[in-house]
Amino acid sequence: MEQPQKTEQPVEQVQAQEVDAEGKKPSKNALKKAQKEAEKAAKKEAQKKAQAEKQQPEEEDPLAANYGDYELIQSQEKTDRVWTPVRCIDESMVGKNILVRARLQNSRVKGSIGFLVLREQFADIQAVIAYKEGQVSKKMIKWVGGIPKESIVDVYAEVTKPEQPVQSCSQKVELLVNRIYVVSRSHPLLPFQLEDASRPIKKGEIEMEDYNVVPTQPEEKKEEKKEDELNIIVSLKTRLDNRVIDLRTKANQAIMRVQSGVCQLFREFLYQNGFIEIHTPKLIAGSSEGGANVFKLKYFNQDACLAQSPQLYKQMCVMADFDRVFEIGPVFRAENSFTHRHMCEFTGLDIEMAIKENYHEVLDLLGDMFGYIFEGLETRYKVELETINQQFPFDPFKFKRPVVKLTFEEGVKMLHEAGIQQDPLEDLSTETERKLGALVKEKYDTDFYMLHRYPKSARPFYTMVCKDDDRYTNSYDFFMRGEEITSGAQRIHEPEFLKKRAMECGLNVDTIKDYIEAFKYGAYPHGGCGIGLERVVMLYCALGNIRKSCMFPRDPKRITP
After folding, report:
1. pLDDT tens readout for residues 178-190
2. Which of 158, 184, 210 is the last residue of a domain?
3. Which of 48, 170, 202, 328 is spaced 20 to 30 A from 180 at the CA atom?
4. Is 333 annotated in the active site?
5. From the candidates 103, 239, 248, 341, which is the catalytic residue?
């Protein structure tokens, strides 16, 4: 006989039915058990229903072609599309439809509208994506809200003029998005937020080296401020550990362009004044400046080192009748000093030139050259300097023509008159240089000046001594905001005198034999200098740390990235 199928019954039915032959009603435990089984069955049924709905194909967005991720760009096509740089978008383009490729700096999507900030280099612009039947769907807006920050996107949009200029962006107009595509997605977890790395630094505020993120507000006061008002500082160490991300900030984009501008203006002036550019070896047999702070290495079966300076080679070029030469190249110093202005590798701007009578010919040319650079930065890089100033506020750099020119003895006299002790036959310490810079600024109202006729004890072996007092030399340093940015001198061009001075300074003459012999066959009187590029940028913009003006700094603790 076929058995009837069992079915789940409501609790009320269980309560009503008889359980056994004696006609007893179900116990409380039986009722609870039946209740649980009924709830479990209902939950399972709901899960089945939800799973079935999930497995049903999602309705396709008819506007799906207006957004999405590009395939990997492998140079498979070449079209006539034109991309408009963000920095070029202004009111003259209102009403035009344009294509922009930029990073998605930020996005805020709610319902049928979204606000985006697109950034390209140190320019940014606000974009709006809003629901519009037949052009922008709600699914498209939701998809845009899921794009990670720092992703690269292509945006097709109309340039519009908002009722109020967009104060938070460099471009005061707005983009109304109609199509958007992801070129490359960023990893969603960034080492730090660009907003935090771009916050203005107050004058005198110290960036902590040993912590990743340092709140400037005490813990107990944090709750009193809104989240967007908390001043989070990304430490210099964290920035340098993730330099590719850090270099994306507006200030860093501008700093590197100013650095490029210094090189451009340096070249322009020297080309206009009869110089040619040279390129000298960086692998050499011996120390180029007589010091022990060199990076030593094996050159096949010989000992070699990285050049501390192109000094010897640029002099040899003048002896080879090139008359006026310059070089922009790397300089290596194995100095175990972790200061705000020293690095183990930096970019040198080096000059060497023949002189007719007096080393002041070099001084005057260098004074004109720096004036050309400073004026060029003021006029050509105004936007970049304003961008830097927004994050790292600094006082305008002051210089005057003719450049203030003091002898070392005159500088020592100023220090003595101010009650600062200084031996007239010893070099200045960094702190004393700063004090003298402050005195010069107070007296002459300039951030830039020359100090010349340094004591012999403070200069390299190849520096020409003064005829009237052999305790001093025909040498010079230039200063910006109280810190030295270049050293130079008239060089000794008489071989025997040069050999004598090298031996007095403890050098192995055999290692510089080729250099000394270069002056045996008729030598021009000559002089020059070496300028630290990163130091010039650091001091012009008062950045406080040379690592901020170097793209990928190298110091005793850092050789990556």
Report:
1. 999 999 999 999 9
2. 184
3. 170
4. yes
5. 341
